[in-house]
Specification:
Rossmann fold; Helicase, Ruva Protein, domain 3; 4 domains; elongated; binds adenosine-5'-triphosphate; binds magnesium ion
């Protein structure tokens, strides 16, 4: 049985939907405002039916907030006739479906059924309820299993080793363990073992007394001491020189050490998380890594999967990072074509999520003012690779059809571009004139009725733009 949240201030419609959901064997929770809806979404939820016009704001403004809730449910927009332009844009931004009011029960049933089926097939995992997500995206079984380990690690004090290819999120997951642990209010100290200067490794880690070597003109705490009460993150621990491995093992056993030039030991109560993209077992066999140290640092291991092994998370990563990057670039949120998503899902991402983000960054700067991302905005090497693998699979002619389908009719394309530009323009002019109607009309040359009509069309109010 799934839990479905309905956010709509139209009591009759909401009651009708609730009945439909319950008849389908699920639990329905109705909310009449955004505030009530967000409260209902603190609990588990698979699907949200979301109205656009709500007494305390626009449903479209909370899409990201809904995605950030622990269950990150599928969103089905329910909308009055006038909103279909906005709803279509929302669809391009990853909402599951939109349904125009009035609509048949059957249509709503079907949308619900499909959304639930999609989540079941993807094997969506429920994130452990109490986990703060810290920007970690992914509900595939593979990422879900890692998040369960994060929750377990956060509750205890075990030394954690995070492994995974480059760009799989080792640092992000380490930080999440810290943020979810009782040590979250103390420091998270990162030691990048690849960039420890050879002659200063010990003083960087252990600190030194004033005058203990040339250049030590004042006493300094080392990184281990700085992590007292918090978490020490040893990144790329495979690069730690063998000589240091021995000293560090001692620190781990004793939780105390001697700063350079000092004759007294000091203590540090830190929690250790290490990460590596190397095979430490093999390094042990080859005599490059101490077996006793590996044994100590690996009380709990979290192996992060490469992105190509959980392509079902790409859709959510795409929605999240497109919104974030567009905001960063100040270019109004973009949608994406199904072919764009399919190309990303087909690529093998040797650089994992990091490569994924930089690819999106390139695609967005390539598209810049165009409202929708198409495969043509992707770097040529990715398009060629995807195309080649599809051709190898004998899908040549379908590919052509698919690419042809990705070209929208000129009118649709133009209307979309105008809608994005008009909306951005209105927001700018409202901000510049601090919401004064007379000034907005003067600057824009719009008549009052035309201005009000446009504000209604884009579901904008001066208050929401200025807040
Ligand atoms: N599951 C995820 N959800 C959202 N963002 C992610 C996820 N995994 C990784 N990222 C993002 O990808 C980028 C790379 O992550 P991170 O630096 O943690 O990887 P790493 O494994 O430490 O890489 P490296 O081995 O190269 O140091 C960061 O911007 C991070 O926020
Ligand atoms: Mg890293």
């Amino acid at each position: 049985m799934a839990r479905v949240v309905i956010v709509d201030d139209d009591e009759n419609f909401s009651a009708l939907l609730s009945t439909m959901v319950r008849r389908a064997g699920h639990d329905a929770v109705a909310a009449a405002t955004i505030r009530e809806g967000m409260r209902a979404l603190e609990g588990p939820c698979e699907v949200v039916f979301l109205d656009i016009h709500l007494p305390d704001g626009s449903g479209l403004d909370i899409l990201q907030d809904i995605r950030n809730t622990p269950s990150s449910p599928e969103i089905i927009i329910i909308t009055g006739f006038d909103d279909s332009g906005a709803a279509e844009l929302a669809l391009k931004n990853g909402v599951w479906d939109y349904i125009k009011k009035p609509s048949s029960i059957k249509q709503m049933q079907l949308a619900l059924l499909r959304a639930l089926q999609y989540r079941r097939e993807k094997g969506y995992q429920r994130v452990p309820a109490a986990l703060k997500m810290d920007g970690i995206i992914g509900k595939s079984p593979l990422v879900g299993a890692c998040l369960n380990l994060v929750a377990r690690a956060a509750q205890g004090e075990a030394n954690v080793l995070i492994t995974g290819e480059t760009g799989t999120g080792k640092e992000l997951f380490a930080l999440s363990i810290h943020d979810n642990s009782p040590r979250c209010n103390k420091s998270f100290v990162v030691v990048d073992c690849t960039s420890l200067p050879e002659n200063l490794v010990e003083s960087t880690l252990f600190g030194h007394k004033k005058g203990s070597f040339t250049g030590a003109d004042r006493a300094r705490d080392g990184l281990i001491r700085q992590a007292d009460g918090g978490t020490l993150f040893l990144d790329e621990i495979g690069e730690l020189p063998l000589s240091m491995q021995k000293s560090f093992l001692r620190v781990l056993q004793m939780r105390s050490f001697r700063p350079i030039g000092s004759d007294t030991e000091i203590t540090s109560d830190f929690r250790l998380i290490s990460a590596t993209n190397r095979n430490l077992d093999k390094m042990v066999e080859e005599g490059q890594f101490r077996e006793d140290l590996l044994f100590r640092i690996r009380t709990l291991q979290i192996g992060l999967p490469p992105l190509r092994e959980h392509p079902e998370d790409i859709r959510e990563l795409l929605v999240h990072y497109v919104a974030r990057l567009c905001e960063q670039y100040g270019v109004g949120n973009k949608g994406f074509s199904p072919e764009f998503l399919a190309a990303l899902e087909a690529h093998d991402w040797p650089g994992n999520v990091r490569e994924f983000i930089s690819t999106l960054e390139r695609a967005i700067s390539e598209a810049f003012y165009e409202p929708t991302l198409y495969p043509k905005h992707l770097p040529a090497d990715i398009r060629i690779k995807v195309k080649r693998s599809e051709l190898d699979m004998g899908a040549g002619s379908e590919l052509h059809d698919e690419m042809a389908e990705s070209i929208p009719a000129l009118k649709t394309y133009r209307d979309e571009a105008i809608a994005v530009a008009e909306r951005e323009y209105l927001e700018r002019v409202i901000k510049t004139s601090r919401g004064r109607i007379r000034e907005i009309c003067r600057l824009s040359g719009l008549s009052r009725p035309r201005l009000y009509a446009l504000l209604k069309k884009y579901n904008l109010t001066r208050q929401t733009v200025l807040s």
